[in-house]
Amino acid sequence: MKPTISTIGNYEEQTITIGCWLDNKRSSGKIAFLQLRDGTGYIQGVAVKNELGDEQFQAVKNIGQESSLYVTGEVRKDDRAPSGYELAVRNVEVIHDTIDYPITPKEHGTEFLMDHRHLWIRSSRQHAILRIRDVIIQASYRFFQEHGFTKIDPPILTANSAEETTDLFHTKYFDEDAYLSQSGQLYMEAAALAFQRVFSFGPTFRAEKSKTRRHLIEFWMIEPEMAFCDHEESLEIQEAYVTAITQAVLKEAKAELQTIGRDTSQLEKIEPPFPRIRYDEAIERLQAKGFDISWGEDLGAPHETEIATQFDKPVFITHYPQKIKAFYMKPDPENKELALCADLIAPEGYGEIIGGSERIDDYSLLEERFKEHQLSEEAYQWYLELRQYGSVPHSGFGLGLERTVAWLSGTEHVRETIPFPRLLNRLYP
User: Fold this and answer.
1) pLDDT > 70 in the chain, percent
2) Model pTM above 0.70
3) What's a Pfam family in this record (predicted)?
4) Cα 429 from Cα 420, distance rounded (Å)
């Protein structure tokens, strides 16, 4: 393996060459300080005129921001540096000299930065956020593999909706109507009856005309489904999973959290059990705080934020009214008006990051729900057949990756938590 900034500690007091880009630079008389990045990290290169010679030292001082370079230098210990090392520059070979790089150290507006998202992701903060995203993804795979889950990939093109919404992207599939998937859940239920514990990870699409800081048009979901699993066990798995990815970020993304300036004190409290309140109690708490909300109404972002402020961990809100939840959710045996479901609300105003439920496993009841919700039995016949051939109690949930990245990284808007966000008025770049 070639030396990289992330592995620089393996080469202390050795002379190495790294491929990198010039993030920034400053000079002081006969010394130039080069802030270098190679995609794995950042390091300062110290170029001294007496060691480089007049000609190369002057050339180094004139290199443009984001120029690509091969830099040769001696790795020196430096406890003041974030990486713990600096590079004493011995030679600089310019691969491509960049002129007039658009994103300078000065302040830029959000729209300008979004127009230049292909370059903005190089900046230290954006780079750190997307690194945290990767840590969460890798930790998710580890968690599910360690807990006996099989990775299954549901289709992106579907003939029907998972949640009967009209906010779907329509397309033609030859002579048929098709839609971009809003969830892989229905297909994952089929997979769970074949493999018992399964999970998917992929893009989902919702054509909601929303401009809030929590919404994207295209976003990524992690969706586990579990056979022989009731609502209570599912909640316990969700607690363990969220704890696992939080601990992974705290352990594996320390440098990135520091770059962002994330206060990790709240994250360090994340461990099971999470507090749980029923929908009834949530309504009472909101009314006590002066919110104009009645039983039977769904909770919006301000409601979720208020509930979250009353706890120092993620909080489950359970047992929503059946009529405001999806058709496939199993009714509470003790009160048929309620669903065996839960939303997990993240602290610090980041809203719902998980939605889950126990699924209806009774053929006749699901058939009734099709009629109540005016769903086509022909389109959903395969889904109904899962209750006809070996039906079992089963549960599942979906975690929205971008909202989770926003919460764990302390990022205000989800548009910064995905490499190339798709927003209501943005399809470029």
Assistant:
1) 99
2) yes
3) tRNA_anti-codon
4) 7
